[in-house]
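pasting input
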Amino acid sequence: MSVYAFVEHTIKEHPDTDVTYEAECLWCDWAATPADDSEPVDMACMQHTGRTGHAGFRRLRTSFAMVIRRK
Ligand SMILES: [Zn+2]
């Protein structure tokens, strides 16, 4: 007979870490200055589009996560 223990886990943002937002142009080597808020990155993208006509970006949101095992 086998016994399987069921352990619940949750995952959440790691405490004392920041979320980082970044963006890279898909058409040239331009990249926005990384920030801990999405708004300045989005603004920089729109300004880049205004200057160059480049309208495609790869956006990254980096965070640190932590899994917590419930007892
Ligand atoms: Zn560009």
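fyi The chain has one domain: 19-69.
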